[in-house]
């Protein structure tokens, strides 16, 4: 009992400190254009903003994209196959300057800092190839990430993504009391399964499919998503899909141990010291 009380006090203290930090940093947020404010405002309203590399017009895009496509070409068959489910190929490419330089572009970081509300940390980049799957498992299940109170993943399609390729799908942030109640019901179901995720059938019982938002798009589509606060997943696919994931949190994330996967050895690396590096330059 005493430990529970201590844990609750520690949690409340941490949340209070977080709120105070948000207020203090408000006056220090970087200036952004009206176009970028629209991105931030939409993220605060729905949790997602869809744009494109062309619209972002970042100076390092051409080099980054060429390297990304070369990386994808080196990715071969799935590492493991379950009955009806193939594991994705995921490589950590944070050490490659083409990806790192894109991830720290000033315009991009200013948008994300204005959304998160605090100084931000750029944790790294994954290049990912997802394969056709018949079963809804792992990240194909509805879930929320848990690295921080607010976080942004910038998801980039490297090939045209139609419904056949399994586009990113999400449920917008609740806009009224009823939607909040339904989100709490889903959160309870996630808690019951130890936050491993729930399938479409269970989701439909709480939130109708008409409320789900799919994000198909051409190669170069860019999705800003607060994957901590929106319910989201990848969808079952019959065609391969290749993507990049750039990950950002506050500079002191709530759960830093979960952020290591974007730059440590959790996944294979394509780096200057890796033999694959010479095939992508």
Tell me what the structure shows.
- Helices cover 34% and strands 20% of the residues.
- The protein has eight helices and eleven strands.
- The chain has helices at 2-25, 34-46, 53-56, 61-74, 97-103, 106-116, 177-192, 200-206, and strands spanning 48-52, 81-82, 85-86, 89-92, 120-130, 151-157, 168-171, 213-215, 221-225, 231-234, 241-250.
- A six-stranded antiparallel sheet has the order 1-9-6-11-5-4.
- A hairpin with a 2-residue loop joins strand 2 and strand 3.
- Helix 2 packs across helix 6 (106-116) and helix 4 crosses helix 5 (97-103).
- The N and C termini lie far apart (58 Å).
The separation of the N and C termini measures 58 Å
Shape: globular
Parts with pLDDT < 50 across at least 5 consecutive residues: 273-281
Integer-rounded radius of gyration: 19 Å
How would you summarize this macromolecular structure in one to three sentences?
Helix content is 34%, strand content 20%. The C terminus is likely disordered. The longest helix is centred in the first third of the chain and has 24 residues.
List keywords for this structure.
281 residues; single chain; alpha+beta; 34% helix; globular; six-stranded antiparallel sheet; disordered C terminus; three-stranded antiparallel sheet
What's the helix and strand layout?
Layout: H1 2-25, H2 34-46, E1 48-52, H3 53-56, H4 61-74, E2 81-82, E3 85-86, E4 89-92, H5 97-103, H6 106-116, E5 120-130, E6 151-157, E7 168-171, H7 177-192, H8 200-206, E8 213-215, E9 221-225, E10 231-234, E11 241-250
Helix pairs in contact: 2-6, 4-5
